[in-house]
Amino acid sequence: MTTSPTLRLDGIGIGTLSAVSLSVAAGDIHCLSGPSGSGKSRLLRAVADLEPHAGQVWLGEVAQSSLPAHAWRARVMLVPAESQWWADSVGEHLPAFPAAEDLAALGFEASVLGWQVSRLSSGEKQRLALLRAIAQGPSALLLDEPTANLDDATTRRVEAWLMGHARQRGWPVLWVAHDPGQIARVASRHWRIDGTELRAEEVAPWR
Ligand SMILES: Nc1ncnc2c1ncn2[C@@H]1O[C@H](COP(=O)(O)OP(=O)(O)OP(=O)(O)O)[C@@H](O)[C@H]1O
């Protein structure tokens, strides 16, 4: 497998969405928007092999259907809007000690690893879910409104951090976003769900 694969959706059908096709190149970020309930999260779940769907997803030369679901999900990593936590402390969810620069970029010190999950705010959970996802060593990222609970300054920091990692590690990223400003800042392409279809939208020319 190549280290910097393209993520390709080929005729994905799920819920009311039919035959969604798009390609996200390595290191590139595409944003996905659309009205509430239009199917953004379900589309990401289909790409992550968490819901049955029509069509095929490719990561480079590897087809989703050729791998067990857990192996696919380890490569094509979904960070859902609401993260799940199963152990008591933050550190128990991480496979290794995170890089100091990643902790700092997300606004944490190393002591966060000893924090109880029950004390985390929504925004802390959201940032730590991102840290946990990248710690698994994915090859592609699916982000469902990853800054929804964050203030403006923190949002900008998280955007810069994600963009830097996507570029450096060659991840294709599919990112659900509602804010046109965010889409203009992070995305090279913008797809909008319109009924049963996905439409390409202009990305702001001043980007
Ligand atoms: N497993 C399922 N089976 C059937 N319908 C579902 C299932 N999961 C979600 N839905 C429905 O599919 C539609 C799309 O849901 P989805 O969560 O993808 O919306 P969304 O575009 O992400 O919305 P929002 O912006 O509000 O988060 C909704 O009407 C939802 O109720």
UniProtKB/TrEMBL annotation:
Pfam family, one: ABC_tran
Annotated InterPro entries: AAA+_ATPase, ABC_transporter-like_ATP-bd, ABC_transporter-like_CS, P-loop_NTPase
Keyword match ATP-binding: yes
Domain ABC transporter: residue ranges: 1-203
Signal peptide annotation: none
PROSITE patterns, per the entry: ABC_TRANSPORTER_1, ABC_TRANSPORTER_2
MF annotations from Gene Ontology: ATP binding
Key words of the record: ATP-binding, Nucleotide-binding
Listed name of the protein: ATP-binding cassette domain-containing protein
